[in-house]
Amino acid sequence: MPLQTSALPPAADDRTPPRATPRTPSRRDWLAWAGATALTPLPALLSGCGGSNNPGPHLAATQAWGRHEIRQAMQASQARAASVALLQGDRLVWQEAFGVLDDASRAPATPDTRFNVGSVSKVLAALAVMILVDRQLVELDAPVVRYLPQFTMLSPGYRDITVRHLLSHASGLPGTYARHMFAFAPQPGYAADLEAALADMHLKHTPGAMAVYCNDGFTLVERIVHAVTGQAYPAFVQSAILNPLGMARSGYTLQPLPAGSFAPGYIGDVRQRQEFVMGHATGGLCTTPGDMMKLATLLMRGGELDEQRIVSKAGVAEMGSAQNQGMRLNLTPDWHWGLGWDSARQQGLAAAGFVAWQKSGGTMFHSSDFYVLPQAGLALLLTGNAPGFKPGTIAEGILLRALQETGQLRVLPPRVSVAMPALATISSVAVEAVLGIYGCSSHPMKAASPDGQQVDLSIWSAKAKDWEPLCTGMRLRSDGWWWSDTQPRTQYRWEQAEGRRYLLSREPATAGHYGVTMPMAQQMPKAPAPLPPQWSARLGSTWLLANETPDSIPLAMGAGTATLQELPELPGYLLWDDSQLLLPLTADRAGMTVQVPLNAGRDLVELVVQIRDKEEWIHAAGWAYRRHD
After folding, report:
1. What pLDDT score does 57 carry?
2. Using an 8 Å Cβ cutoff, are 95 and 84 in contact?
3. Pick from 38, 293, 423, 611: CA 20 to 30 A from residue 248's CA?
4. CA distances to 25, 264, 605 from 558, in Å
5. Could you give the percent of the chain with pLDDT greater than 90?
6. Band of the pLDDT at 58, cuts 50, 70, 90?
7. One-letter-per-residue 3-state SS of 476-537
């Protein structure tokens, strides 16, 4: 749900640098698929019977550009259907669907077609909490254990997790509980299962120390809502938000929808059954772009719609306030987490001088992007039914052109320069300090130097079981970044914080008019000890996923095995699933080792070995694997 970009996000986002080379599908892949303006009442939306539903020729140039880009993105991603809605002030000026729902019947998508919007659902989770704050049933800075006294974890610091931490990705929870998250049929009990599973897990960082994308925090919000209201989370959102806003085509995937009412996913050329996302608060909303404009209108009006107060103006403002600026580890201060929002000041619109609240979302079959520009009076949702559909750059482009066409923006912002600065001087000792193995949530990286001046970056390839070049020939430049003559688009630098060394990347976003800086990985220190014999005996093993429902979408898409090995360059660490580096805690438990903010430290796992019928099983983030070799 994109930040990537992501129910698990972010789905991989087209605003951020690439995070890995293509490899065999694994668990990590399934988790990456992510002052209000005064307005008059929004008119009732007409039921579209065709591909579009527009009240007039408003923002014609913006629409023409958007249509072209959407169709191009659909072709590139093999998305069969897409849908968009654009709100300007009090008018829904553009609502249009593209493509078909079925290759065989060629039934067209319409503005009424529902899409799973993944982690865009987090905005509603934050709104639900703010409503409970208004009702004095919840306090943002109260500990979670006040509302869930039975909640526990192995790390004592769990008692310090607050409700605000859950909504701002700062809780320190591992990341994403994988079991039964995506399926072709409802799988009840997901949130309760997560809470129970956390009792046998550690925190990955001190609550509030950093913000790193975390679905588990929003799933715990479901438990809090149930505890203080007596209603299941979907029922509360329905009664407190969706019904009052008239969002009649929005809800959670609790039961099958009527055939032809939703955009199905495809695996290759095969149409699939309905996708059910069981993490409701973190990624389970099924909706239409038109319905989401009603939510956008509420937020732009400071919590009131049609003279009905849904949430306080202060609550909406708090959602749109930066949450991470005072955290101990904040390597990218230009990234502003909100409550539920990926960004309370989205960089692409900020580069043009406008405040934008933004949330991306992805599921196994859908990708979406949602924007609200509270001062400019614009909002947009763009969605498509393919995980590779890239809505981010298109959404930015539509909004920038709408700002220009409405006279709020004189010219589109210019593209950022990638002119290479002059070389800088650095000692071989300083170069030596940054070399070694780096860890993150999705793949190890290696920094090496052939001459004490140049640095080459490699990435671990699951397919080749070896290192593959990522960026070679990098040298330090006068701007403090390392540039490669052959790959100048992406630059890298190293920073030390909290006693650790981090690798960061910087490159122009796909839109071209602003740069994105991302923490990539953390330098791994020498292991404190060799692997214990019990873990050494497991090296080179393959493990088969054995506790997913037969209706599991990850299984249908090829997930199901994981490997355990040791990198020769980093003895003493375990490499799980060709992605994460862990250290043994005991003979039957291995723990998380990296603390990387923003996105590269998300969805970490803790490995626990259990014996069943004299056979070893490994448990990781809710999934249980039996030894297969």
Report:
1. 56
2. yes
3. 38
4. 7, 18, 20
5. 88
6. confident
7. EECCCCEEECCCCCCEEEEEEECCEEEEEEEEECCCCCCEEEEEEEEECCCCCCCCCHHHHC
